[in-house]
Amino acid sequence: MTTIKNVAVVGGSGNVGKPIVAGLLAAGFNVTALTRESSSSTFPDGVKVKKVDYESVDSIKEALQGQDAVVSAAATIAVGKQYPIVDAAVAAGVKRFIPSEFGINTRTVSSQGLKTILQGKIKALDYIIEKSKANPDFTWSGVTTGLFFDWGFRTSGLGFNKDTKSVGIVDSGNTPYFASNLPFIGKAVAAILANPDKTANQYLSVASFTVSQNKLLKIVEEESGAKWTTKPVKSPDLVKAGDEKLSKGDFSAFRDFLQAYLFADGGDSTKGVELANGLLGLQEEDPRPTIKAFLEGKL
């Protein structure tokens, strides 16, 4: 039976990394944050900090001595640089590697635009799987969480404009999609590492809840006590806009592709997917508190 106690986190000061560190600490893991030598990031009490040269396998290997698992929360632009971390983890005898996946399931994503933007993640996990096959004691877990719900409301309102009380609705607005609050993602990572034998070499889907644009609109109107104006958005127009941006090297196209992928009629992001919430003992959450916090400006 595999036991994981000591966990190293890469990118632990980022948007996803912070709640992962918090979730691991709350679950009783010993957490070490790996940072760049020039980093001035700070971490909660109880977190050890080790500065490394991310270009040097030897530097990372030394920092990973005694670690049972590595969780990478590297930003999308940095995921292509995970290879030395993977090599160091194998050399240091790390048992489990959770790469910087989260968000969209890169194993099944059908949108060509998203696949292009997410090539770094796709290739990194391919590399990790190859390493695991060659080194059976080195295992991996991929995690997809759906849309970052609280973060999305905080940064963009997920299309909901509080000032004008309006929202863009893609196609019918009835397509279901998965969404997760950031603290939930931290709980999910901790649960995966607490159940290492059940989660080895698997790509797991978890979510705080399953929603649709119209379901969110109903809650927003109930919580705000007002009728909101809807603005129709056609999914082909989103894809076209994304293609035009991407052709110019503008990776803000990700948002256009993501909306089309999640919200378009006939969207397939939830089809045939069985959530691992039950396997991991994760309780489904209610989207209402997050929506309320958004409307009150508390996110």
Description of the structure:
The chain has 299 residues and is an alpha/beta fold. The chain folds into two domains: 6-144 and 181-205, Rossmann fold (3-Layer(aba) Sandwich), CATH 3.40.50.720; 147-179 and 209-270 and 283-295, Alpha-Beta Complex (UDP-galactose 4-epimerase, domain 1). Helices cover 41% and strands 18% of the residues. It contains 13 helices and 13 strands. The protein has helices spanning 17-26, 57-63, 83-92, 112-117, 119-134, 149-156, 182-194, 196-199, 213-224, 235-247, 253-263, 277-280, 288-295, and strands spanning 6-10, 30-36, 48-52, 69-72, 96-98, 139-144, 147-148, 160-161, 166-170, 177-180, 202-205, 209-211, 229-233. The radius of gyration is 20 Å and the shape is globular. The termini are far apart. The mean pLDDT is 95. GO terms for molecular function: oxidoreductase activity. InterPro entries: NAD(P)-bd_dom_sf, NmrA-like, NmrA/Isoflavone_reductase-like, PCBER-like. This is NmrA-like domain-containing protein.
